[in-house]
Amino acid sequence: MSREHEIDPSIPSVARMYDYYLGGKDHFPADREAAEKIVALVPSVRQIAHDNRAFLGRAVRLLAARGVTQFLDIGSGLPTQQNTHQIAQSVAPEARVAYVDNDPVVLSHGRALLADHVHTIVVDADMRAPDELLAHPEIRGLLDFERPVAVLLLAMLHFVPGREEPAQILTALRKVLAPGSYVVVSNAFAGEVDPARLRAGERVYAGTSAGGVHSRTAAELAGLTEGFELLEPGIVPVDAWRVPEARPDFTKPGLLGLVARVN
After folding, report:
1. Per-residue confidence of the chain (263 residues) as pLDDT tens digits?
2. Rounded to two decimals, what is the model's pTM?
3. What residue ranges in the chain does DSSP mark as E strands?
């Protein structure tokens, strides 16, 4: 049996938990139980998930308006409203989108939904093996890396511990991306949350398919994206990224977002 069909419903999936936060229906009891533990610790987590989707929409629309017509969405999650291909193709109908995930439910649902989309594919790959991901024949068959590509890592790098491994992922991307390409990142940050609550949340995620979650500060994300050119307004909470008159609040737990250019 292939990896894609190996589903253990007793292990919470971060993709299905995220779907639960967004109000979706593609989750098992274990996913809901873990998600509700996070809701109890961070009551705003549902809003944070929706803010992250809105950030994705603003970033993709901006990049498509700048002429980017190729998108690589790593850790795309379960299909919902206003997915990357829908947003990009509303601005640039010729836009091509490669979705990447390794959750079997995500792969099954995504492929069923996108079966008739010529310029959109769903690929089984893992960001923790970036060289293998970037060399995937289906991705290479759809996207031309000699031209600009926007790589989306929305709520993904916080599932990679430390600094070295996420830095390696971003370095691997920078090596293959043409000048004028972009990376879009959002990552959990703790704000001024009580350390005991933070540790409790980390314990919940330690029991999921991801094996843990790692919040980062704006300074840590700046270090990871060294060598890229940050677009204004830099690294801010996702609900304030290019939202007119929004005031970034770094005291609340949530997600920090950034869009950076490859020169």
Report:
1. 334 446 788 999 998 999 999 998 889 999 999 999 999 999 999 999 999 999 999 999 999 999 999 999 998 877 666 789 999 999 999 999 999 988 877 777 667 666 667 788 989 999 999 999 999 999 999 999 999 999 999 999 999 999 999 999 999 999 999 999 999 999 999 999 999 999 999 999 999 999 999 999 999 999 999 999 999 999 999 999 999 999 999 999 999 999 999 99
2. 0.94
3. 70-74, 96-101, 120-124, 150-154, 182-189, 229-230, 236-237, 254-261
- Whether residue 106 contacts residue 24, with contact meaning beta carbons closer than 8 Å, is answered with no
**For residues 219 and 252, what is the distance between their CA atoms, to the nearest angstrom?**
16
Distances from the Cα of 198 to the Cαs of 40, 52, 187, in angstroms? 12, 20, 15
> DSSP letters of 156-184?
-GGGS-SSHHHHHHHHHHHHHPPTT-EEE
CA-angle at 130, arms to 188 and 78, nearest 5°: 55
Contact 231, 261 (CB under 8 A): yes
Strand partners, 187: 256
Q: How far apart (Å, rounded) are the C-alpha atoms in residues 23 and 20?
A: 5
Strand, coil or helix: 79: coil
SS3 235: coil
Q: How far apart are the first and last CA of the chain?
A: 43
Report d(CA 100, CA 133) in Å as an integer. Answer: 9
